[in-house]
Amino acid sequence: MPPGTQLEIGDAIVEVTALPHNGCKKFKARFGLDALKFVSAPVGKQLHLRGIYTKVIKPGTIRIGDPITKM
Q1: By mean pLDDT, which of 6-10, 17-21, 26-30, 41-45 is the weakest?
Q2: Which helix (H) or strand (E) holds 61?
Q3: How far is CA 41 from CA 37, 38, 66, in A?
C-alpha cells in the first residue's frame, strides 16, 4: 500500500507511512540469510515483503477478527 493510505481497523484509523520495514535479526534467525537478502533487495522493499509501518490517526479499540477497510 502506498504511503498515505488510511485503514480503518475496529474503531481506529491508521495511515501507512513512507518508512520501509526492513529485515531484522529475528527475521534472519527464523527464515535464514537468503530470505533476509530477498526481502531487503530493492524489489522486496518495493513490494513491502517485510510489512509496513503505520501511524495512528484516530485511536480506538481493535479486536481480533476486526475487518480492515481501506478508506
Answers
A1: 17-21
A2: none
A3: 6, 5, 32
Domain boundaries, the chain: 6-63
**Residue entry with cell 485503514:** 7
Q: How many CB atoms lie within 10 A of CB 23?
A: 19
Q: Compute the distance between CA of residue 60 and CA of residue 14 in angstroms, rounded to an integer.
A: 10
pLDDT digits (tens, 9 = 90+) for 30-58: 899 998 888 888 888 888 787 788 999 99
C-alpha span between 44 and 32 (Å, rounded): 15
